[in-house]
Design a protein that fits this description.
Length: 270
């Protein structure tokens, strides 16, 4: 049957669905921190914090407009970035330089602490988001709590790895913008955590139904990640041509194979 809905209405509906998906995911609370980590650096402290605060405020307003509940993570985002922005104006030149160099690592450590506290008090930070897309009858079930504990621990580990990489780039290598340790590799645990957050609940539910769900979905991001790293490395002249070509070709080939595998799987289950 042909969809006779006006194109503009379909577009608005699609955008609305996307917004609901984003604000209903832990990614909404974490995105400002990701932006802070990526944009922080010499001469960019105030800009990175301002953008992170703006995103935090935008998500709170959008959540309110869409009838969602204010979540602890969102409140924490607003308070931290507001205080961090104010701090940047009161410290001297040397203090601001220090914040510019280590702002990303500081934000990761603070976020790690927040996530750990939510786990310790038995209210994983992902739980308020999960409740908005889960029937209340399942909120107190062991499976629901288990999924949120595991995902929260994965995010904690992701932030810990990013912090270690940032420290290695800045303190050991002396270059916080070094291509691999200061830029490319810190993306890996972040992307892995995002994918895990999306894949793990369905994986657990499949197991509970007695199925044998594939674990490939947890790792499908690696191939396109390698492709992007290869392309970025060549464009910025940060890696050798041979390595760049290997990453691009290898990433493209593996991504294509996984895409065909996914289509074949969907055709089989249809």
């Amino acid at each position: 049957m042909t969809d006779t809905t006006p194109k503009t209405d379909r577009t608005h509906r699609g955008v609305g669905k996307l917004v609901d998906t984003v604000i209903g995911s832990p990614f909404a609370g974490i995105l400002p921190w990701i932006v802070m980590s990526l944009f922080s650096g010499p001469g960019r402290f105030e800009v990175s914090v301002a953008i992170a605060f703006g995103l935090s405020l935008a998500f709170v307003l959008i959540t309110h407009r869409h009838g969602g509940r204010l979540k602890p993570m969102e409140v924490f985002d607003l308070v931290f970035f507001a205080l961090f922005f104010i701090l940047g104006y009161f410290v001297g030149h040397s203090g601001r330089t220090w914040l510019e160099n280590w702002g990303g690592e500081i934000s990761n450590i603070v976020l790690m602490t927040f996530v750990l506290i939510t786990i310790v008090v038995k209210q994983p930070f992902t739980m308020p988001y999960a409740k908005e897309s889960t029937d209340p009858q399942f909120w107190d079930t062991p499976a629901f709590r288990h999924i949120n504990y595991v995902i929260s621990w994965v995010w904690f580990l992701s932030f810990a790895i990013q912090t270690a990489m940032g420290y290695y780039a800045g303190a050991i290598l002396g270059d916080s913008n070094e291509f691999w340790w200061g830029w490319a590799l810190p993306f890996a645990p972040m992307i892995a955590a995002i994918v895990f957050t999306e894949v793990y609940p369905d994986y657990v539910r499949g197991k509970a139904r007695g199925e044998n769900p594939s674990a490939v979905g947890f790792f499908e991001w690696i191939a396109p990640f390698a492709l992007v790293c290869g392309a970025a490395g060549l464009i910025t002249d940060s890696i050798g041509t041979t390595l760049g070509v290997i990453l691009i070709v290898g990433g493209a080939v593996v991504s294509g194979a996984l895409n065909r595998r996914g289509k074949a799987r969907k055709a089989t289950t249809a």
